[in-house]
Amino acid sequence: MKKLPLDLLVHNRTGFVKAARIYSNVVSPPVMFAVVGLAFGLYALPGWTGFLWAAVYGLLVSLAPILVVLFLLRSGRIAELHMSNTRERNIPYLSAILFAVMAYGLIARFNGPELLRCLALFNIIELIMLTVINHFWLISLHATGAIATAVLVGLVFGWPTGLLVGIPLVGSVCWVRLFLKRHSVAQILAGLALGAAVVLLLTPFGCFVS
Prior knowledge:
Layout: H1 15-26, H2 29-44, H3 48-74, H4 90-109, H5 114-134, H6 141-157, H7 159-179, H8 185-202
Helix pairs in contact: 1-7, 2-3, 2-5, 2-6, 3-4, 4-5, 5-8, 6-7, 6-8
C-alpha cells in the first residue's frame, strides 16, 4: 500500500516536515522559470526593456498558472496544492500550455528577446509532454524544472555557473520530494531525463546557444 505524502498528514506539518514543505513550494517550477526568465531578459536586454519582457514572460508562464491552481484549490476542484491525483493536473497543465503559447506569441510578434522566445517554446514542449505522461503516470514536475533550470543556466551563462546553481538546486529539490514521499525514485529520474532532454532538443535549432 502506497504511503501518504508526509505533508498531507496534519500531525506532520511541523518542524522539519513543515520546513521541507515550504521549501518545496518556494522552489516550484513556476518560481524557477520566473527567475530564469528574469535572468534571460536582463542578459539579452540590460535595463528596463529586458525587465519588462521578463515580466511579460513571468506573468504568463509563472504567475497565471499559479493563480489557476489556487483558484481550483479554493473552489474545491483539486484536493491539495501538489495534486498527487494525476487527474487533477489536467486543467492546470492545459491552461499552462495556453499561457506559454500566449507568451511565445507576444515575444515573437513584438520582437522580444530570443532567449525568452526559446524559453517559452521550451515551456510549451515540456508541458505538452508532461500532459501526455500525466495520463499514465505521476512524473516529478519539480525534478523536471530543476534540471531544466540547471541546464539552461549552464548553456547561457557557462557550465561553471550552471554547476554552481544546478548541483544544490537539483540535489535539494530531488531530496525534498523524496523525503516528503511525493515521488518515487523512478518518477524523479524520469523528470530529470525529461527536463534535460527538452532543453537539449532545442539547441540544434539555435536556442540557448551563442
